[in-house]
Each structure stands twice: as structure tokens, then as C-alpha cells.
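The instructor's notes for this session suggest beginning with a concrete chain rather than abstract definitions. Hand out the sequence below and ask the class to guess, before any prediction is shown, which regions might be ordered.
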Amino acid sequence: MRYRYQKVHHLLSDYVKTVLVAEGFAKGEDNNLPLFTNGMPALLCRTAKTPTGIEDIVQLSIFGKSTLREDWALQKNETTIAYFFKPFALATVFNLPAAQLIKAPITLSNWNAHKTNALKTQLTFAETTEKKNEALESLLLLQLKQQQRECEVIRYSTDKIMLNSGKEILPEILRELNLTERTFQRVFKKFVGISPVQYRRICQFKISFDQLRNGQFDTLGDVAYNTGFADQSHFIRSFKEFTEITPKEYRKSGLKRK
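After discussion, reveal the predicted structure:
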């Protein structure tokens, strides 16, 4: 088996991290897949060429967490193409609740039978791996067009909060995206799986924790100020909520007890 990477279509590059192709019929020096495939949401297509040259569709699935290792154990007549998505993009592109995606892989026919049948027809008569990839690419471009507004909202807001996690960021996002708070809450919760406030607090803690861990401060008050907490007391309470110890205890002994 040999794996290689396909170039991501420029219109999909904000949502798809990479495209990985594995061909059972091709000889390669290494049968081990890259580690980054673990834990990444993906659309996976697996086909097998019949003796008459027709492609049999073995698997068409969406993975909210990670593909399984057995999905990559290919026979010599099989090909697997996987689109690995950036955080929160898979749910938005396919218009699926994040809570549903994390439970178990979803067979594409259970997502949308009409679109899946059209895709299967294209894949069945695809003569090359490149043609198969074009069929998958076309489906994703169609989904992106139909879900463009939701995709833009989730991508922009999650990136924005990650860079600036202070409380003022949420009203700012509502103004910039011209959304009501109710609409934003509904869309964000559906495709991210948690509320904007919860996501903001997680990002705020992550930024403050990184500063503390890397020693990028003179006092704890500096960390609180730099990461948007109201004061040092709020920072300490938040830190303890996420780690069950105080920043001072963490600096002394790390998180070894947890």
C-alpha cells in the first residue's frame, strides 16, 4: 500500500486540512499512516475494483472523531480517499449537529440518500483515483455553497474567539456578522457542540494556561490582565474550575496529581 496527498481545492482550503489517498495496488516503502489522522474529523471513501473494471463502493462514511485503523487495511484492488477537516468544519459543511457526529460514524446514505446515490454513480464509473477525488470534491463544493453562511459564521467566530477570548468578543462578533444573539447561539451550539460562552471560557483558560506554563508573566495579575479576566481572583477561580488546583499549586507541582 502507498499513501499520498492530494492538493485541496482552493475553495475548500478554509475547511479541509488535507486529503489523504491510499492505494492498495501501489507499492510503497511504508504502510504506516501519518499520526495526524488520529482524532481528526473526516469524510472517508473506500472503493474496490471488480474484475470487470467497475468500482464497488465499500464505504462512504463521516467520522466526527477519527477514522479507524481497520479502514486503512486495504486489499490490492482497493482505494481509500479521506478528506480531513479542520475543527468544527465537518459538522457545518454537512449540516449535522456536532452532538450527533461525536457519537458514532455516520454512513453517508443515512445523511442524504439522494446526494449519496448521485455520488455513488460517479464513483462507480470513475476510471482513476483522480476521477474519484473529483467526485468527492464536487460534493463538498456543493455542500459548501449550500451551507456557505453557516460555514462562514462558525469559521470566523471560532477563529476570532481563539485569538481574543475576552468577554467583549461575543458582542463584537454579533455586530460584525450582523446576527441576533439568539441566531448566533443556535447556530454555534449546533455545529460546535457547546455555547459561545462556554467556548470563549475554554479558549480563555487555554491562553492563560499556556502563559502560566511557559512563564510568560511577572505576576498572576499580569496573566489575568493579558487574557481578559476581570481580575486575578477571577483567573484563579477559572483555573481551579478547569484543573481542580490553583495556579500557585500548579506552579509548584504541576498537574501530576490529576
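Then share the key points. Strands lie at 2-6, 16-23, 42-49, 55-63, 78-85, 106-107. Residues 2-146 form one domain.
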